[in-house]
Amino acid sequence: MNTRMARAVEVASLVLVMVAGIGAWELYKAAARPVQAQPPVGDHLKCYNIGSGGEVGVLVRLADQFGVEEVTVKDNKLLCVPATKEVLGPAS
């Protein structure tokens, strides 16, 4: 193999190693990123009356777009879930 061809193979090998190193670094950064609480899907809440039931006095962890909080369940009356609102027009 002539020297030009050998040099081209060296450069190509070096570029391949550099690209692989950059890709590995990007994967490492993505894996090391801390998981954040995701905001709810909807911009409103839909609440259902569940009466009294379920466990009371239990420590639970709640997470929303503002952070994570540990609270004690005191009373079970409503179950509210994220919902999206679509205005259809005036009621007839």
Query: How large a portion of the residues is in β-strands, by DSSP E?
Result: 25-35%
First CA to last CA: what distance? 86 Å
* Strand order across the largest sheet: 1-4
Number of helices: 1
Order of helices and strands: HEEEE
**What oligomeric arrangement do these chains adopt?**
single chain
- Show unreliable segments: none
**Tally of discrete structural domains:** 2
Total strands: the figure is 4
Shape: elongated
Radius of gyration: 28 Å
Mean pLDDT: 79
Q: Structural class, from helix and strand content?
A: alpha+beta
In this structure, how is the largest beta sheet organized? Answer: 2 strands, antiparallel
Helix share of residues?
25-40%
Describe this structure in words.
The structure is a single chain. This protein is α+β, with helices and mostly antiparallel strands and 92 residues long. It has 2 domains: 33 residues; 49 residues, no CATH class. Helices cover 33% and strands 26% of the residues. It has 1 helix and 4 strands; from the N terminus they run H-E-E-E-E. It has a two-stranded antiparallel sheet with strand order 1-4. The protein is elongated, with a radius of gyration of 28 Å. It starts with a helix and ends in a 9-residue tail after the last strand. The mean pLDDT is 79.
Which features would summarize this protein structure in a list?
2 domains, 1 helix, alpha+beta
Topology:
Blueprint: H1 3-32, E1 44-49, E2 59-64, E3 67-72, E4 78-83
Antiparallel strand pairs: 1-4, 2-3
Can you give me a brief rundown of this structure?
With 92 residues, the protein is an alpha+beta fold.
